[in-house]
Specification:
The chain has about 325 residues and is of the alpha+beta class. Helix content is about 25%, strand content about 35%.
C-alpha cells in the first residue's frame, strides 16, 4: 500500500498558555486537495506552520510519504522538508525576475536543467511570456502563479496554501484557483489549503476539515459536511439554517410545514431540527395549511432569499430560484 502524502498524528501546539492546535490527526492522500476551514484564530495557519517546520509542535508527529518530519525525538528543518508553501502575500523577491524567483527555489539553480524546468513550470501556470518581468510589473493573479511555480520548483510531495486567493477579485480568483488546483492535481501533490470562505472550500476541496479553537470539529467531503454537519456550529459556517420545532410521531417528524419521514434508526432526542433555506419552498396558500407572510426579499442573482413570517411571529428563510417571484406582504404556504 502506498504511503499517504501527509500524515499527522495527535499534533498539539501552544503559544504560552494558549493551545493553538489541539490533538489534530489527519491523513491526506497524494493528489488530494484538503481545505482547512474556520474563523480567524481557529488554528488553521498555525497547523500549516507546524507542518512546514516553521513551528515545533509540543506533541504528536508529522510524516510525508512515510518519512517522519517531526516527532517527540527528532525534527527535520523546514528547508529539508519536501514541502512547498505559498503565502497569502506571495513573498516574491522584488529585485528578481519571474524566472529567477522560480530558480531561487531550486538546489542547482544555475544549471541548464534547472532553467528548463523553471520555464516548464512557468508555462504550466500560463506565464511563459513573462520570464523577464519583475514582480511589480505583474497583476496579483500573475504574482500568485509565480509563487506557485516557485513552490513547485522544489518538487514537493506536500503543498501548503495559506489563503492564497484572498487578495484577488472574484473573477480573477476563480481563474487563478482553477490553474493552481489543476497543476497540483496533475503533479499528485497532497495539498492543504487554508480558507475562511465556505464557498471556496466547497468548490475546491476533495475533503474539508472544520476547525474551531484549535480542534478539528469534523472532516468529510463537501457534500456530507454541508448536508450532514456534526453540530450546530459547523452547520452555521456554511450559511443560514432554520431551527424548526418538531415532534416525533410514528417514525415521522411533525413540523409546521407538514410531516417529514425519517429513517427508523434516526436518533432524535432534540425538539428541533435544522433545515437549509433551499430545503423549503413557497406555494400558494390553501385552506388546509396556515398562511405565512413574505417579509424581506433578498435578491442573490440566480437565487432569491425570502424571510417568511408565520401567524405566531416565528420566522423562517426560504431560498428559491429567481424565476419564482413573491413580494413583501404576499400570503404563501411554506413546504418541505
Amino acid at each position: 500500500m502506498n504511503a499517504p502524502g501527509l500524515c499527522l498524528q495527535n499534533i498539539s501546539h501552544r503559544f504560552g498558555k494558549v493551545e493553538a492546535v489541539r490533538d489534530v490527526t489527519l491523513t491526506i492522500a497524494p493528489g488530494e486537495i484538503h481545505c482547512l476551514l474556520g474563523a480567524s484564530g481557529s488554528g488553521k495557519s498555525t497547523l500549516l506552520r507546524v507542518i512546514a517546520g516553521l513551528e515545533r509542535q509540543q506533541h504528536g508527529s508529522a510524516s510525508v510519504a512515510g518519512e517522519v518530519m517531526a516527532d517527540s525525538s527528532s525534527r527535520l528543518p523546514a528547508e529539508k522538508r519536501p514541502i512547498g508553501f505559498v503565502f497569502q502575500d506571495y513573498a516574491l523577491f522584488p529585485h528578481l525576475s519571474v524566472l529567477d524567483n522560480v530558480l531561487f527555489g531550486m538546489v542547482r539553480r544555475r544549471s541548464g536543467e534547472s532553467r528548463r524546468r523553471a520555464k516548464h513550470l512557468l508555462g504550466d501556470v500560463g506565464l511563459a511570456e513573462r520570464l523577464n518581468s519583475l514582480p511589480h510589473m505583474l497583476s496579483g493573479g500573475e504574482q500568485q502563479r509565480v509563487a506557485l511555480a516557485r513552490a513547485m520548483a522544489r518538487t514537493p510531495k506536500v503543498m501548503l496554501l495559506d489563503e492564497p486567493f484572498s487578495g484577488l477579485d472574484s473573477q480573477l480568483r476563480a481563474d487563478v484557483r482553477e490553474t493552481t488546483l489543476r497543476v497540483l492535481r496533475a503533479a499528485s501533490v497532497a495539498t492543504i489549503m487554508v480558507t475562511h470562505d465556505p464557498s471556496e472550500a466547497v468548490s475546491c476541496a476533495d475533503r474539508i476539515s472544520v476547525m474551531h479553537a484549535g480542534r478539528m470539529m469534523q472532516t468529510d467531503t463537501p457534500y456530507q459536511i454541508y448536508h450532514y454537519p456534526a453540530e450546530e456550529r459547523t452547520a452555521a459556517i456554511f450559511g443560514l439554517c432554520n431551527r424548526i420545532p418538531v415532534v416525533r410521531r410514528d417514525g415521522k417528524l411533525m413540523t409546521p410545514f407538514g410531516e417529514w419521514q425519517t429513517a427508523e434508526n434516526t436518533d432524535l432526542d432534540s425538539q428541533s431540527v435544522f433545515i437549509r433555506p433551499e430545503r423549503l419552498s413557497l406555494a400558494p396558500p390553501t385552506p388546509e395549511a396556515p398562511a405565512w407572510e413574505i417579509g424581506r426579499v433578498i435578491r442573490e442573482g440566480a437565487t432569491t432569499l425570502y424571510e417568511v413570517r408565520a401567524p405566531d411571529t416565528s420566522t423562517v428563510h426560504v431560498r428559491t430560484l429567481s424565476t419564482q417571484h413573491a413580494m413583501p406582504g404576499e400570503k404563501v404556504c411554506v413546504r418541505l
